[in-house]
Amino acid sequence: MHLKIQTKVKLLIITALLLGALYLYSSINTPEINTGQTALFIQHKKQSAADFYKKQCGFCHTSEELIAPDMNKIKAVYKEKYKTKEAFIQAITKFVKNPDKKTAIYKEGIEDFMDMPKMPFKEEQIKAVAAYIYDNADL
């Protein structure tokens, strides 16, 4: 039990460091929004779904599974349950808009990860990335 707590503490520290580095990088390399907020999660319209995925999703959803489950495993479970691309996109979009471990389809090892934070992405961005995830063999 003690080892599991140490692992979670390490993951929290790693997550905080990575998010801090991401914030610092984005505050230096992204323009300010009219409201004065740093454009940390606001994406330029010209950014492809692949780039968006790599920068916003792939940051946590890697095969190393340090912060979040491997996206390839998540995708396999969603594709098994949702047979059409449209249903897959709708299910992923619904979860990303309101992530909750209780409603997650992918349950393997879920207790080992922190709750996914609610992401401030536009629905069109989520749908485009969900389509990218569906269409690509290895993420």
- Strand content of the residues, in percent? under 5%
CATH topology of the largest domain: Cytochrome Bc1 Complex, Chain D, domain 2
Judging from the principal axes of the Cα atoms, what is the shape?
globular
Average pLDDT number = 77
What CATH first level of the largest domain would be assigned? Mainly Alpha
Largest sheet: none
Please count the beta strands (DSSP E, at least 2 residues each). Answer: 0
Cα-atom Rg, whole angstroms? 16 Å
**Second-tier CATH architecture of the largest domain:** Orthogonal Bundle
Structural class label: mainly alpha
Helical fraction: 40-55%
Q: Count the helices. How many? A: 5
Q: Alpha-carbon distance between the termini?
A: 32 Å
Low-confidence stretches: 21-44
How many distinct folded domains? Answer: 2
**What string gives the helices and strands in order?**
HHHHH
Describe the structure.
The protein is mostly helical and 139 residues long. The chain folds into two domains: 40 residues, no CATH class; 97 residues, Cytochrome Bc1 Complex, Chain D, domain 2, CATH 1.10.760. 53% of the residues lie in helices and 0% in strands. The chain contains five helices and no strands. About 17% of the residues have low confidence.
